[in-house]
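hey so i finally got around to running both of the ones u sent me last week. sorry it took forever, my laptop kept dying halfway thru and i had to restart like 3 times lol. anyway pasting them below in the order u listed, first the sequence line then the structure token line for each. didnt double check formatting much so if smth looks off just lmk and ill redo it

first one:
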Amino acid sequence: MSEIRRVGRVKHKHSRKKYTNYFYSYKSARHLWCEGRSEIDTALILEFDDAILSYSDQNLTFELEDPNGKLFTYTPDFVAFDLTVFDWVVIEAKTQFYQMTEEDIALLRWCFKTQHGKTFRHIVPENECTELRLKNYRTLYKYLKLCPTQVLPIVTAKILCGDALTFEDFRLALSQRNIDDAFAFSYLAHRLAVFDFDLPLNDLTIVEFI
């Protein structure tokens, strides 16, 4: 299965051609439509954010009213259940070069908070995290489909590898037990073994077991 793929449907917004991509969320166990790189990267951020319990794509349209009484509708890119507020939050994803204006952000925050009791978030992936972190998310994303503890329980992994070691040592330890490299990546993807996401992931990366 290809987790992210470009499909033939093309949408037009602000006179710019936007390709719609099919993205599979392992966290939500469903496929999502993502328009352009900003939405794909935002979905990856949500996928790896432990504070986000679940999220979905553009499946809700809200009716809002501005301070002057003018009614308008708004369809967010995502809605996500955020454990930090223990409620659904409304998310608009934009690129660094096509960000929302401060006035529009303030208006939507006010409308959603006063009329729906919801938090509005404007996410620009480049501002949310480093390029290295996004690269690591992209690398590890496909390994979320694996369940590494079915092959190597956490207790066994700790006995086998100790509390901390290099990623190369971890992979070699698994290889000695005839366990595929993919499960080493899957341990990291599921944060069963942790490393600094803002540093390159390579053989010298230090990983620690939680």
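and the second one:
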Amino acid sequence: MQADLDVAAGADHVPTITRRKTSYLKANVATVAAIAIAATAAWITAMSFVEAYGIGASHFGQSTDMAKRAGPGVELFVLDGVALVVVAVLARLAARGFRAGR
């Protein structure tokens, strides 16, 4: 009865976002963020190895003397570890969001 009075009075009903749409939105955002972080970490790792060792045979790199070459270092492995943990957390959130949207 109240709904009929609201419509008769000209009250506009704005549809609210349902829980299902919100969970899918969060899941999609988490998925895109996970892919972006993984791609960025992979690109940084690849470019670090290319800079350190060069592309191709040893005469194409920065230095032809193997003793002068410096490896990427521990920082790169820490970056990859942190990126892996963040991607795993985002993937879990995305899976939970997609399951809640069913």
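quick thing i noticed on the 2nd:
The first helix runs from residue 2 to 9.
anyway thats it, ttyl
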